[in-house]
Amino acid sequence: MRIPAQEQVLPVLREKLGGRLLDATVKSPVRIFLLVSAADIMEVSRVIFRDLEARLQTATATDAPDAFEILYHWAFDYIGCVVSVRVKLDKQKPEIDSIAPLCRGAEWIEREMWELMGIAFRGHPDLRHLLLMDDWPAGKFPLRRDFKGLNA
Amino acid sequence: MDYLATIVQLVLFPGLVFTAVAGLVTTWIDRKVTARVQMRVGPPFLQPFYDIAKYLIKETTVPAGSTRWVFLLAPLVGFAGVLLASMIIWNALLFPHKAFVGDLIVVLYLLTMPSLSVILGAFASRNPVASLGGSREMKLVMAYELPFVLAILVPVIKAHSIGLGQLATTWSSYLAPSGVLAAIVAIVCMQAKLTLVPFDQAEAETELAGGACLEYSGPPLGIFKLTRAMMQFVVPMFLITVFFGGLNIGEGGIKIGYGILKYIVLTVIIVLIRNTAPRLRIDQAVRFFWGPVSAAAMIAVVFALLGW
Amino acid sequence: MSYVINALTKSLNVFHLAGSPCNNCDIEILDALTPKYDLERFGIVLVGSVRHADVLLLSGAFNRKATIRAKTVYEQAPKPVVVIAIGNCAITGNIFRDSYNLDPPIGKHIPVDAYIPGCPPKPEAMISAVVKLIAKLKGTKA
Lengths: 152, 308, 142
Fold this sequence. Notes:
The complex is a heterotrimer. Chain A is of the alpha/beta class. In chain A, 20% of the residues lie in helices and 31% in strands. In chain A, the strands form two sheets. Chain A has a five-stranded mixed beta sheet. Chain A has a two-stranded parallel ribbon with strand order 6-7. In chain A, helix 3 (107-117) links the parallel strand 6 and strand 7. Chain B is built from 13 helices and no strands. Chain B has one domain. The chains are: A alpha/beta, B mainly alpha, C alpha/beta. The B-C interface holds B 31, 35, 38-44, 47, 50-51, 53-54, 56-61, 205-206, 208-211, 213-218, 221 and C 3-4, 7-8, 10-11, 35, 38, 40-41, 43, 46-49, 51-52, 54, 76, 78-80.
């Protein structure tokens, strides 16, 4: 189904996601941020991608002081609204289910997030280097805050 | 002594040295006129000779897994073909009574050998891009050979002979409609035979990264380039022999000056077409040759049979 | 040996190898080949295949992944070949020299014969470098 109008995006999402939706921030009528738990990401993504016919724009990963954060940016092109779904991952062991089996467009961006941030994606069909060279030393993730160079 | 004369003919005139020098000068004329049309200066006169000399000092690389002997011998096949064709044509031009019957057929076959050698070399390269260039060249050859042979039928019908000697000396009847139409068709097919724009799909630099000769380097590439330059001299001379009356105007006499004049006119036509037309897609080129050009050639043959 | 140098310096096939540049150096290289500067009068011609190349033009900051490929391309060029590094990124890495993904300069991995600094270098600078390179080739191996 398609969401009929911009004002109804948040109510429809609350109704569909129920208890999975931990928090919602509305920056503007066309820009909504949701917070969900990492364990629910597959179900939430299925609802937004399949049921509500959104398009995955991209995904971004951040090394925040308290946790690793991933934002999945879903675009509702038919009403001109972007909904970003935020998950927080444990700093010591950042792991999450890969949504690539559900949405093929997530394959490469998850490869990039893995190789540069070190976030493990469970169930990713093809987890290998995308931008870094193939014999990049394992365990060194360039975009983490504590990365001090290859020779450190 | 006869063998010595043949060897001198093969190596000096009208064989290797003469055709190679004339062909390289033709490519210089082409590049210079193109440069002037584009409002630049262009290369110096000896540039094509420097290019061939440069190819001789580079190392030859053979791709791993390719058919080595086909890869290395393919350039020589085309080179031999154009060399022999040049000798037969000049024999017919200079000594029309000594030409043998059926040499027109022999020259037609020999002039397809450079394209065949490019195709052979492309497929022996074990490179998908080169095979793409080779397949385009194959389609192009199938497309333009049909109207080319049909157009050559017109002077054959008019002169009642398939000897190049007779064709070279009977010119005055070619101002007829069938002759003019056949000459136009032959000039268009010549542009494709020389793999010049708008028909150079096989070696499209911007699309195919060098096309059919992608994997060639050093002396084999030099032989390919030299063959191409020699074709730029031999095919216009062939057309002059068959359509435009050889080295004379009207009946009688060998006049080298008129031959050079006709040759320069043909070369200028080639260069102007080359500089003003964009490259066609391969399917557009095949449709062009099998459609309007073949139809025009068949109309020309019918006119010739009817005596017009 | 002098025949080799003479033949090589009078007819140069140029192959442009871009290691993920910002493309400004590429635009200036193409400028140098346009009618205004007309490099064809020196016998310089742009070719599409590295097997036809006498000069390799390197532009852009080659990151680690691109350096591996650049070495392969350099080995594919038939010798003798001349390598020219164009632009500050190819020479030293420029503003990217401290990046985790770069191992500058490209001269560490591929033997470079001439450097053309600039960001981007003007076509006049490139022509001047080619002239000096030709003189260097003739001078040291005369």
